[in-house]
Recover the amino acids of this structure.
């Protein structure tokens, strides 16, 4: 291991970090904490005539296209739908991104479109769960599309030996930004200034996250440079969209020629499904199963966010010594422990819930940051955005199988505890596949130079 002092971050890298700072507001305030339980309460009001914070339990179902759906499972089905759609949309975005002259403009345009959709969540009131469901699907698609381009830019701004460090810094910076806004929203939801109702306080918090996302995206737009297109394989077609679809089909055919890259994507599909389902279900699990109010849930996520800031940096240092591959596997072992502890958590006991939040924070940012940088080593040069679109299809918005399993188990058992326990399988399968992967062979297969520590 080299002891050379790591160079200071460039202005471009700092600008790249700021997009993590910007979009984390959507993930924390909207995607993780507030919107899932809020949409569940709106759905329960539509099904039973009263909101979820009522002492009574809603036992009626929603009726959608002839299907009878549990109001408590609605948000998981919505996320599942968004994920299935993203599996078709995001690879096209990746193929386009590899051919545009400015990834920066594409990323920021998608981000600003997503922030507008997120801002419209302010108007989800009463029992209008349909509007909330549509907005969540569309916002997740724009968010995922912007992240495809964001991840691809990592290869342009960081050398192979620096990517674990730069990726970890970006994740850490994002967790800090998300935590700061969530802290302000905690004050709004708990204090309810100016006589606000709980519903109004939640809606204002949702709007603040959308505005945060939009405003801070200006920083990467101004600081990230436009890099020339590098090595995108020529395909038939007149328009950019035709060439992009052609490249997508070629990539899917050629992926079999990179077996280690394919193995990582399959492993990541499983273990990231587990991570994302834990994130999406945490607030609903805490409120509906453990009996915690909104202020406790926001405090818990704040703990996760601030601890994850340090956890991402710690994982980056561990990876510098032991390599990203082994460090990720160690993180997955901790995730199995997290799920087991979550199953046995007693209801209405705040301290054990906060302890679990600390443990989640330690591994959350680290496993995700290192997965991104590790995968960047397995991508053929000039195909970064396209391959990252496949990666993103297994990322934050694409835990379709995990959320589907979680929703189905809840509907069958009327309890979130067996649903959370079922997630162990995702970490075990993903970890087993990752253990079989040969990282150095995968980097060489992709035509890249292996970093000093892998």
């Amino acid at each position: 291991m080299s002891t050379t002092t790591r160079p200071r971050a460039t202005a471009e890298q700092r600008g790249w970090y700021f997009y993590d700072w910007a979009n984390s507001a959507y993930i924390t305030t909207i995607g993780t904490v507030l919107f899932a339980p809020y949409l569940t309460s709106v759905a329960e009001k539509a099904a039973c005539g009263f909101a979820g914070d009522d002492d009574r339990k809603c036992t009626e179902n929603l009726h959608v296209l002839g299907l009878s759906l549990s109001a408590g499972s609605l948000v998981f089905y919505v996320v599942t739908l968004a994920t299935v759609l993203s599996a078709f949309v995001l690879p096209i975005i990746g193929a386009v991104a590899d051919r545009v002259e400015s990834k920066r403009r594409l990323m920021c345009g998608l981000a600003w479109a997503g922030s507008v959709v997120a801002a419209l969540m302010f108007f989800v009131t009463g029992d209008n769960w349909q509007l909330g469901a549509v907005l969540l699907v569309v916002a997740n698609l724009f968010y995922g599309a912007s992240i495809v381009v964001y991840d691809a830019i990592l290869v342009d701004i960081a050398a192979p030996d620096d990517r674990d460090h730069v990726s970890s810094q970006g994740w850490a910076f994002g967790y800090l930004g998300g935590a700061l806004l969530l802290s302000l929203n905690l004050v709004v939801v708990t204090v309810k200034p100016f006589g606000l109702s709980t519903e109004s306080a939640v809606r204002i918090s949702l709007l603040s996250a959308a505005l945060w996302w939009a405003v801070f995206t200006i920083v990467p737009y101004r600081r990230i440079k436009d890099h020339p297109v590098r090595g995108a394989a020529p395909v038939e077609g007149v328009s950019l969209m035709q060439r992009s679809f052609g490249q997508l089909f070629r990539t899917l055919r050629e992926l079999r020629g990179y077996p280690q890259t394919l193995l990582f994507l399959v492993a990541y599909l499983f273990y990231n499904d587990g991570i994302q389902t834990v994130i999406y279900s945490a607030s609903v699990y805490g409120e509906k199963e453990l009996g915690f109010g909104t202020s406790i849930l926001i405090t818990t996520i704040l703990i996760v966010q601030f601890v994850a800031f340090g956890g991402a940096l710690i994982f980056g240092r561990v990876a510098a010594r032991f390599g990203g591959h082994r460090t990720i596997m160690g993180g997955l072992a901790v995730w199995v422990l997290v799920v087991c502890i979550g199953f046995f958590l007693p209801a209405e006991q705040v301290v054990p819930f906060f302890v679990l939040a600390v443990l989640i924070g330690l591994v959350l940012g680290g496993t995700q940051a290192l997965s991104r940088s590790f995968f960047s080593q397995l991508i053929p040069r000039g195909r970064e955005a396209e391959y990252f679109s496949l990666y993103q299809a297994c990322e934050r918005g694409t835990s379709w199988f995990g959320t589907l399993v979680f929703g189905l188990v809840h509907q069958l058992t009327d309890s979130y505890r067996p649903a959370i326990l079922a997630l162990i399988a995702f970490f075990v399968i993903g970890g087993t596949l990752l253990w079989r992967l040969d990282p150095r062979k995968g980097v060489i297969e992709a035509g890249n130079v292996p970093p000093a520590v892998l």
Observations:
- The radius of gyration is 21 Å.
- The mean pLDDT is 83.
- Residues 125 and 398 are 27 Å apart (CA to CA).
- Strands lie at 61-64, 67-70.
